[in-house]
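Researcher: Structure prediction, please.
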Amino acid sequence: MTATIRETDVFSDSYRMLYVKLNEVSTFNSRVYSAFPEKVVDKKSDYPLIVITPVDVTYSPLTFISLKRGPIRFAVDIYSTSSKGLDDLSGDFVEKMESSENDFYISGVVAMRLVSTAYGQFERSGLRVHNKSFHYEFDFGWY
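Model: Predicted structure follows.
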């Protein structure tokens, strides 16, 4: 299923498009969130977690035609209790993003690109949690 992104609802439509695509990945087991869960996540069984950060949009009107165009930025953070598990989930995530390029295009997204990644780890309730952030940017234009 693809979602069409409209200018009036660019934030919610962009998030919904990503949410739908990421929930199609079987290894994510419907653990996709819009923020780190407020519930207690202190057991191995609470992981993995996949968080889509709020979407950031910068409008840049082009002067020679009535077109607004701008980059839409978002990040996806993946949390796992093992570095191997994190690598596997990261591979699944990148594969899904790349294999969905046509669906994104149909939704109005052009030139989606992975801008950067970041890795970190921290202790939570005695568990070592590994996380990787994927920072993406894509263009979208409105007439």
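Model: Residues 15 and 55 are 7 Å apart (CA to CA).
Researcher: Thanks, that helps.
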